[in-house]
Amino acid sequence: PKGVATRKASGEVLSAIAPVLPELWGGSADLAESNNTTPTGEPSFIPEEMSTKDFSGHKYGRVLHFGIREHAMGSVMNGITLHGGTRVYGGTFLVFSDYMRPSVRLAALMKLPVTYVWTHDSIGLGEDGPTHQPVEHLAALRAIPGLDVVRPGDANETAVAWRTVLENTNRPAGLCLSRQNLPVLDRDTFASAEGAARGGYVLADTDGTPDVILVATGSELSLAVAARDVLAGEDIAVRVVSMPCREWFDEQDHDYRDNVLPPSVRARVSVEAGVAQGWREIVGDAGRIVSLEHFGASAAASVLFQEFGFTPEAVVSAARESMIAAAEGTG
Asked: Which of 19, 117, 195, 206 sits 20 to 30 Å CA-CA off 137?
């Protein structure tokens, strides 16, 4: 199957929920077509006399045109949210979250339920090259206290992520979404995407205690699944954990977290197309981290993933290394 980009899934969610959530409105910093932030058929928030063939609207329109000014977009959303009565979202590329960081930080400080739609979330965006490819951004955003950083692994997780974000009324959230198509996991085979609401959940398991646990986010989730199949062929028992939101997972009770990541299983691998910072606390001293510690390049997403080591084979190799380290009691 062709798959679905999570940015496209997000757009489908917005179009589906707009008719039943009249208080929801938002737009983009001049990247609406790329961010998929325009719900189908919704008018723009503009003076009626300024309507055009492409953008018709009026004073009750729900599509905001922020212009190429990411910090101002964030500030405007803070003001809208402080006024009360509505829920607002704004979109741009994840790499441009740098431009709006002060307003994101203030939203977190003020506990405002602002939603950021940050698309093109990794080297997977391809030919736009390293200026547009986020590398350090997920870690940097996770460092902001009170900000939920959500990176769903497929279209179903994206829908659950949107619902969960809207259910939270006391903090901002950033949805980090793929440009490229991702496999839509068969939930008859894998666990329900409802687990995404808890930040991390067992996507695929084995009988008994696993030999190794693979933890992945976003577009790398399918790599962990493929690696599991390879390892299973070697009679290695593998658990795959999807962890779209570290903040939501940390909020779960101790028993739930230990059930997902049993302390007795020290062989662990994390897989995320960004810097390793922050993942050591998940994988532990015997764990291995499949990460990107340098800037990207201009090439097709498939080429970049292959060249930079985001392949099932790389995850399999990391799993073997971690199993050896865990068995030897070394890091």
From this structure: 195
Beta partners for 118?
A: 92, 176
Residues 225 and 151 reside in one and the same domain = no
* Boundaries of domain holding 71: 6-176
CATH number for 268? 3.40.50.920
Amino acid sitting at position 107: A
H runs (alpha helix) in the chain: 6-17, 32-35, 70-83, 101-109, 137-142, 155-167, 221-232, 246-251, 254-260, 280-283, 301-307, 312-328
Give the end-to-end CA distance of the chain in Å, rounded to a whole number.
39
| pLDDT for the residue 331 | 74
The stretch 75-91 carries a mean pLDDT of: 98
pTM above 0.90, yes or no: yes
CA angle 115, 121, 123 (to 5 degrees): 170
Distances (CA, A) of 136 to 40, 94, 116, 223, 295: 33, 10, 17, 20, 9
Q: Are residues 219 and 315 both part of a single domain?
A: yes
Q: What is the pLDDT of residues 222-269, one digit of tens each?
A: 999 999 999 999 999 999 999 999 999 999 999 999 999 999 999 999
Task: Name the percent of the chain lying above pLDDT 70.
Answer: 100
Could you tell me if 10 and 119 lie in one domain?
yes
Pairing mode, if any, of strands 173-176 and 87-93?
A: unpaired
Length of the chain: 331
Do 201 and 75 lie in one domain? The reply is no
Distance CA 13, CA 316 (A): 34
**CA trace torsion 300, 302, 308, 311 (10° rounding):** 180
Task: Tell me if residue 42 is catalytic.
Answer: no
Q: Which of the following is catalytic: 42, 48, 70, 127?
A: 70
